[in-house]
Amino acid sequence: MNRKRWWLGCLSALLYLFLYAPIAVVIVYSFNVARYGAGWGGFTWKWYHTLWQNPTALAAARNTFLLAGISTVVATLLGTALGYGLSRYWFPGKRVFSRLLYIPVVIPDIVMGVALLLFYSLIREWLGLFELGLTTMVFAHITFQIPFVAIVVRARMAGMDPTIEEAARDLGASGWQTFWHVTLPLIWPGVMAGAMLAFTLSIDDFVVSYFTSGPGATTLPILIYSSVKRGITPDINALSTLIVLISVIGTVGVTLWQHVRPTQGETTR
Fold first, then answer.
1. pTM reported for the whole predicted model
2. Angle (nearest 5°) at CA 131 between 243 and 201
3. Any idea where the domains of the chain sit in the sequence?
């Protein structure tokens, strides 16, 4: 038994090493004095100071988080409504719509990017709308975020007993009151999980953003890609480290908040 646990421990350690070693290397080399090469030249904070003094990087960061924030809020609202509707209501073609929901999830990013670029080009040609820029990027991100949120919320709804909602209606609650005071608190972890997934996908996205961006709409992934073509430098490692740090803080913060937040049952007691 002890030998089996030892092998499982070693396998787990190797798996975690495989997953996190590249991230650790990026973080360590963001403090490297040497600008080029893999050799360690000493510890320094200057690359973070250089990054803070870089207006291009600051503008890209502002665009990235503005894009992720707006698209996540809209996609979470629409995706939650879509997941709830597909779970609780019947309408003609429901099965077809349920199948179509997975297309944006499984379709390659390059195909999604080309399709959105062509769509916006046609709209601009016919109606004179949608010049490529931050606005088109927001709509593009909402497009591929909604299915992820809807799928997560729908999965959460599948594990929820519908008799709880029926009991609320029997006690005189309206449809909106039932959703707001009963359904939403119960599916809230799924809503937050979908929102986190949408936010992460938006920050991480390069292909769709690249195809739908315009002048002055550079995001951090696009900036990193254009900088890496000239060679990986410590300021790029510093930028990547900050993105990792923000992602970790957001994930841990939401997880802790969900543990601290009382459940509906605890609140009613």
1. 0.80
2. 25
3. 58-220
